[in-house]
Each structure stands twice: as C-alpha cells, then as structure tokens.
Amino acid sequence: MAFVKDMxxxxxxxxxxxxxxxxxxxxxxxxxxxxxxxxxxxFRSTDRFFDAQGLHDVQVLSTAGLxxxxxxxxxxxxxxxxxxxxxxxxxxxxxxGRKSATMQEIGTDGIDQPxxxxxxxxxxxxxxxxxxxxxxxxxxxxxxxxxVTPESASSDTSDTNDTNGADGTNETNGTDEAPSFPxxxxxxxxxxxxxxxxxxxxxxxxxxxxxxATTDYTFxxxxxxxxxxxxxxxxxxxxxxxxxxxxxxSYENTVKQVTDRIDGTVKTDxxxxxxxxxxxxxxxxxxxxxxxxxxxxxDAQSQIDANRQQFNQQVDQIVxxxxxxxxxxxxxxGANxxxxxxxxxTTPQLDETTRETMRETIxxxxxxxxxxxxxLDQAQSQLNEQKASTEQTLKTKENELKTxxxxxxxxxxxxxxxxxxxxxxxxxxxxxxxxxAFPIVFLLVAVMMSLTAMARMxxxxxSLIGTYVGLGYGRLAVASRYLxxxxxxxxxxxxxxxxxxxxGIPAFLLVVLQGMYVMPGLRLEYxxxxxxLGIALFVVGVLAATIYACVQEMRQTPAxxxxxxAPRAGSRILLERIRPVWNRMGFLGxxxxxxxFRFKSRLIMTVGGVAGCTALIVCGLAINDxxxxxxxxxxxxxYQYDLMVVSDDSDASAMRxxxxxxxxxxxxxxxRIESGDLTVAGSGDGDSGKAGSxxxxxxxxxxxxxxxxxxxxxxxxxxxxxxxxLGTSGVGKTGSLKLDDDGVIVAQSAASALGVKxxxxxxxxxxxxxxxxAKVSAVNRNLIGSDVYVSETYYAKLFDSKDAKNTKNSKxxxxxxxxxxxxxxxxxxxxxxSQTDYAESLEEDSSxxxxxxxxxMADSFKFDLMGAVVALIVALAGGLALxxxxxLANTNVSERVREMATLKVLGFFDREVHHxxxxxxxxxxxxxxxxxxxxxxxxxxxxxxxLNMPSLxxxxxxxxxxxxxxxxxxxxxxxxxxxxxxxxxxxxxxISSLKSVE
Length: 998
Fold this sequence. Notes:
The protein is of the alpha+beta class and 998 residues long. The strands form five sheets. Strands 14-15-21-18-20-19 form a six-stranded mixed barrel. Strands 2-11-1-12 form a four-stranded antiparallel beta sheet, covered by helices on one side. A four-stranded mixed beta sheet has the order 8-3-4-10, with no helix packed on it.
C-alpha cells in the first residue's frame, strides 16, 4: 500500500509531464483519426447513397445504339445482377441564350434513380424533374412550364442509324426507332442526379467549363410519353458489388471481372451481330425499294401499253376505212349497182406490208396522230431510262452498303468514367493522404518528448528506485510506476484525441465538403478498430521510450542508484577552439555555449522537436501558398489570352461576328474546343473500348488551325516540363515548345496524374466519343485544367481514319475536310473589371454558349477544401509546437534546479536567472527553426506530389512570408512558454535545493 501511495504521490508531483504526454498524444491521435474519419464518413455516406439510388456499376454505350438483342445478351453475362435499358434525347431551349439539356428517362429497374429533394417525381407524359443547378440558373420553380426543341443534330448514339439518310440504306429496321420525348414540359420536382454530386454553389460550379460535347442540364422524365425502342445505353448492377465499398479496391476487382467478361465475348459477338442487323436492314430497304420500283415501272408500262393499243386500234380503223372506200370505187366503175353493194359490204384483205405502209402514211398525214405517237415513244423511252437508272442506283447501293455502314463499337465503362464520382474520390483520397503523412511526424515528436520527459522523471527518482530495488521490489514492479504513468497519460490523451478525431475534425471537414458536394444522409461514425489502433500506436511509442529510460537507469546496482549521479565530466566544445570568437564572448555567453553543446541529448531533442513542429507549420503554409497561387499562375502567366468564347457549331460564325463587331479584341485565335478523355494506352488490344479505367483523365481537346499553329504561343505560354523531385519540375525556356503535326501537347496536370511524358502513347477520346491512339510530342506547363493541344492536320489523322469513321457521330469524308472552329481565344483591351463585365455580357448573347474571363478566374479561383485542411494542420502543428516547447522547458528547469539555486545564492536576481535559462532555450529554438524551415519545404514538396487531383497540378510554392510566419510563430510559442517557466524559476528555494541528496 505504501508503494502505491508513493506512486500516486509521485504522479501528482509530475502533473506537468503528465499533461505534456497527454497533450502530445491527444494531438497525434486527433490528426491520425480526424482526417481519416472525415474522409471515411464521406466515403461511407456516399456509398450508401449510391446503393440506395442504384448507381450503375457498369455502363455500356454503342455507336449504333443498343437493341433488344444487346440487352438480352448483357442479361446473360455471368455476374450481372440487373440490366436497365436507357433512353435519352438531347434538346435545346432558350434561357438567356441557347442552352442544351439531356432528356433522361427514369428507369423502371431501379438503376440510376434520381434523389428527390423537393416536390414529387414525374409520373405523366410532359412532367419532368430538374436539378437544383437548373433552378438556380433559370429562376424557375415547381409548376413552371418549359418548351424544348429536339436537337436536330443530336449526339445520341442512335443517330448513326441514319448516316446515309438520303437513301435510307443505313437505318435500322422499322422497329428500332430513336427515342423521342414530349416537348412541352412542366416541372414537378427538384432532384439530385446520383451521377453528379457537385454542389452547384460550390468550387466545381465556379471553375467548371462545358464544351460543345456536353449538355448544360439533365431533365428526368417518366416512361409515359417516351417513344422509340432503340436504347442509347445500358446500365448494369454487378452481383456482390453493393456489399463492397465503391471506393475500395475490392469493389473495383468485383466490377472488373464482369467488364472483362463483357469485353471478352459479348462485346465482340454483339458488335458483329448489330452490324449484321444494320446490313440486313439496309438490304431489306434495298429489296423493298427494288420491289416498289418494279411495281411502279410495271404500272407505268401497262399504262403505256394500253395507250399504244388504243392508238393502234384507232390507226387500224382508219386503214380499214380507206381500204374499203378504195374497193367500193373500183366496183362502181366495172359492174352494176348490186355488185357494187356487195363489194362495199366486204373489207378487202391487205397484206402486212401494205397495211404498215398505209399506217405510216395515215400517221404522217395527221398531225394529231404524229404527236400522239411521239408522246408514246417518248414515254416509253423515259420509262426505260428510269428503269436502267434505278437498277444502277440499287446495284451501287448494294455494293456500297458494307462500306457505308460503320463497324459497331461498344464502350464498357465503370463508375470511374463519371466525372462527379472520380472528382469526389480523388479529392478525398488526396486529403486522406495528408492525414496519413502528418501523424508520422506527430508520432516521432511524441516519442522524442516522451523519452525526454520520462528519462528525466526516472532520473529524478534515481535514489528511490535504488531503495525499492534494495528492499526487494522487482525491477518490473518499480518500472511499472513509470509505465503506468505513461500509459495513463496516453490513454487519457488518446481518448480525448478520439473525441476530437471522430467528432470535431470530421465535423469541420464535412462542413467544407458539403460546400463542394451534396451528400445526403451524411453522419459521423466511430471506427472502433481504427481508433483503438490509433491509441495503441502512440501507447507503444511512448511506452517504448519509457522502457528505454527505465532500462538505462535500472541496469545499475541498487547501491549505485542510491548514490547521487556523478556530474558530467567537463570537456571542451568546438567553439572554444575558435579563439577569435571564444575570446570575445562574455562569461555568461561561454556558460550558455557549454550548456548547449555539452548536453547533446538535450540539444538533439530540443532542436529536433522544434524543427519538426516548424516543418509542419511550413509544410501547411507551403500547401496553402501553392493552392493560392494556382489561379494567378494559370490565368495570368500560362494563359496569355484574356477571353475564351465557345459556341455551338451552328452558331460559330455568328459568335465570331458578334465578338468582332464589339471592337474589344486586339488579337484572336480561332480554335475548336471539345470535351474528351485521355487514357494511358495499354499493352493489350488498343481498341479495347474501355474508357472508364483508372488511368483516365478528363481533358479539354483544343484543335488549332494549320495556318495559325505559330499563333498558339501568343495565346498560351508553351514551356516544356520534365518531372522533378520533391514536388518540383524542370521548366524549359518560354517559347521553346512548338505545336506540329507529329503529336499532341499534353498539359502537365494530366501528364503528372497519369505518368505521361514526351514520347508516350495515349488514347484520346474527342467530343464525339471517337477514340484514337496519339503520340505525345511534349508536356506543357499547366496547373489548372487538362488541355491537350492538337494541330488540325493531326486531328484529322487521328479522328478521320477508318476506325474514326466507324465510330459514333464521326463526320463523313466530305464534312471532315474542314473543322468547325467553335471557340475563340482573344486578347482584350481595358481593365480586368471591364473584361469580366464584357464576358458576362457575351453569355447573354444567343450565339454564345460560354464566355470565360481569365481576369475573373484568376481573382475568384478558390480551393476551400484544401485551404480548410491546411488551416487545420497549421493549427495542430502550432499546438504541438507549444506543447513541445513547454515540455522541453520544464524538463530543462527540473534538470538544473541545483544550478539555478546556486546562481541565486551567488546573488543573481530573478530576472538574471530568467535570462540565463531562457537564453539557452531561445538559442535552441532558433537552431530548430533554422533546421525546420528547409525541412518543411522538403516535406511540403513530397506531400504535394501525393495530391493527384483531377485537372490540378500543385507546383510547390513557398512565399518568404510563410517562412517568416513559421519562424515568428515558433518563436512566439517559445516566448509564451517562458511566461509559464519564469514562475517556476522564481519558486526555486536555494536552501532546500542545495541540501545533500544523501
């Protein structure tokens, strides 16, 4: 009992060390669990939402639409739980200019169900549910009416069925009709599209750019009123996928097994079968056309024959009359009247030659008969010519049918192809990578501080330890006094850290996340396993340091422990050998130098602890500086143009006329801009058709006219870059990069995420969904957005090849000779404010789809999520620095109580004692700061390399002010600690402190 009481008394006496260890553990566990818990809560809530709404695991697109046979084949694939046929149609409407939307049928099989936020779900024909983005942009509300117009040149996959609409030989059979939706609509509900969780008022809405290949909105309509049997896509649910987390590798493996099966057999067979259906439909149409033509020709021939027969009968009648009259005249001259009558009653028999001669004579003598014969002959001739021409046309169509019908292509995509899904996953993964890295530094500092504190605690009880061991207590029992002390401090600090880590920090992060994404059903959850392991990690580290301190002392004999520890032998330091410096130092300066460098363990612990905390602060500020400068570097340095204007293809000419007539442009460059994808080319079949792999990045494909390739450098700063280390990259000379016809120039933001470099082969998907393998000629410095620049000639080479022509919506050879330049990059006159106002005014024009002002983007670019995480990390690092300095200062004082008492006996005033002690701490702090500043830059570079976010490249930037802030903050914490340490120095009693320890 006395042993326990003494242990408790010792614990109470060491309450400062207890608080220090508890606080360090609290901060470490909070950092370890907090960011992880926030990201995990977001992952889990999103996964539950996806499962509830039936977000598809696999989506199948076809360049020729999907027939009932395709859907049936997909249902038979092993591992497919459910298949839903999707029908959609692109429409346009007037909303402060021409806007586009996708009319999407709400599936009846429970896949991709929109989440109702307000109102009710549409049930009748003409009713629709819209997204909150549309409500915000349009100002409409539930009950409002809207009239839309079907897109004449829709990008639906079914349009490939009418490639040769003039002759109809490339259409599907009559039962496969393209989807058609009602055009007079009524809004009855506001929904959230599970395929896009972006908050319309958040960061993604501010920086997003939609090109001609993407509609502005999505309208959800019921099946009632939708006509057409041809499906635009098919969505699938995979067996067992719902039981896995959609963000885990196990889910990806489960889905990949099914996509591999589809790619392996079903895809090839159905591509061939679908093309054969198109061929059969074309042949049927040709056969029907031939039968119809033959019928029409037969009817026309019958009519001509009937008219000719009537004409011949009329001529024959005249011939008979003339022959009879001639015979009657001859009888009158040579016989009596009775003989004449008998001769007149009998028509003479004429031979065929005579009759034909008479026919020709009669026809020639009568203008009316001559004209009638000519008309009959002309009609017959025209009919013969039409028959020959039609037959030749049908034979030509038969010969051209196989080449005119494209090879059908299937594209099998998983959830990674959804922009909203991949953006959310990438954001959370990147933030979680920070949460995995920073606790390592906290753990190292915790172990160092625990070793310092517990070593001093054990050393103070040196004689007591010797006494207990001498009385027969086991060394383990004696060591348990300190192990339990450290364990209790870790458990209490860890418990408080779990509260902060699973409640405080996640609540803070989720507030920021909800400003970027809409995540229904979000709730905070506790992870017992991760939380327990988090505490256990710090418990093991602190206990290991405590055990080491105990072993160092207890390996001596009890007699040696009960005697006072011999003073450290005097020794020279390096500074003493530098005579010019040493001789000019004062007495107290020399004492301070000796105290600093002779006690190397204290030097290492103090400098290391301060350097680690300073490095954390610098690292956080480095990330903040990097993010803060992204907008300025991209929109004022890399982008040299002031305005980008995009229109629909049909309005491109009107858009350019409008901009030119305003007189604001000083120079411009016409380009074509499309939304597409860049995928790292695999080693397998290059025509895999699987665009939704993990090695894919959404891009903005910019085609430049061949005659103006050199002008691109005036609008965009072209600088080749190469991969560097520690978050750096080698940047080439401005203007040394040129766009040519040998390859594409890829933005650094996309190249870094996918590991692409000059000379790599990548698969590009243009705005029409056409895929082609391209060579990367260079990587260009780019921080925001993933631009891929391609020349007009190389674009045509990529997407007008045989494969390109055999994919959906590819242009015919006649149309592909010249691209439609649907965008303009322009430099403007006037101030930034006037340029922003001009861009806003352009968006009100009906010919303009999107107008982006670089001045506005540079000023408004924000990354709230990263800024919030950085602020959190800096705050925690500052707290750690305060705790570390407090622990080291108190340990320093406790080690030197007799020294301080001696100084007081010698006549030092309290202020002089303060200066004597604090000067050493300030010097050590300065040394730690000097070491921590470059270390923070190093760690910051490594962390930013791990932040692979869609369309963002973090070019590490640390402003001088950030170094100053980190140094000043650390020094301020050191000064604050002095306010706590000075009273301790004042309370030192010289008499009791100088008593013999024996």
